[in-house]
Amino acid sequence: MSGSIDAGLETDHELVAIVAVAENGVIGRDGEMPWHLPEDLKHFKQVTTGHPVIMGRVTYESILEGLGEPLPGRTTVVLTSRDLETPENVVTASDLEEALEAADRAAEKRHDGADRIFVAGGATVYEQLLPAVDRLIVTEVHDSPEGDAYFPTWDREAWREVSRDERDGFAFVEYVRR
Asked: What residue stretches are annotated with the DHFR domain (predicted)?
């Protein structure tokens, strides 16, 4: 599988967006998730470990603040126009093409030929890469909190639900592009 965008950006790997989103589309508030779901964080770790993860600077900085370090066991590709001081498992990219190329290289060299590249937010990164995404892994949060960051509107008819795991207050749902 390979994701591609009309602008000619491509990857040889399955491009997967992973997101926790509330019923009202909220994904964040003040640079953080407006809910506390430890099971979702465990799910994110389990699914993304061993794969490159593309994210924006604000998302990266919120992870640093929360964990005290970048995501372990993953190469993080940070989309940013700023110069960031980064450890070995973090790469910066100034545009989508550079981010996908860095993630492709990391998948081949650092992750033993990992077959997936994950997109982990924030809102602008999801909006830019959603047209190229092959699969969505969504934590549907059964709540409508206040927020200032939203997942982009997506055509559900273009996606087929392939799994659903209902939990107390949320569900893990996976979709593939039709």
From this structure: 14-178
pLDDT above 70 coverage of the chain, percent: 93
Distance between CA atoms of residues 143 and 119, nearest Å: 23
Distance of alpha carbon 177 from alpha carbon 87, whole angstroms: 34
Structure tokens that stand for 61 in this block: 């900085």
Round to whole Å and give the CA distance between 113 and 63: 25
CATH architecture of 14-177: 3-Layer(aba) Sandwich (3.40)
Outline where DSSP puts E strands in the chain. Answer: 14-22, 26-28, 53-56, 76-79, 90-93, 116-119, 135-141, 149-150, 159-166, 170-177
- AA letter at 15: L
Over residues 8-54, the pLDDT tens digits come to 678 889 999 999 999 999 999 999 999 999 999 999 999 999 999 99
Q: Are 118 and 50 in contact (CB under 8 A)?
A: no
Surface-to-core class of residue 127, CB atoms within 10 Å of its CB (0-12 exposed, 13-18 middle, 19+ buried)? middle
Cα 93 from Cα 45, distance rounded (Å): 23
- Note the pLDDT tens digit of each residue in 43-77: 999 999 999 999 999 999 999 999 999 999 999 99
Query: Residue 32 pairs with which residues in a beta bridge?
Result: 29
pTM of the model: 0.93
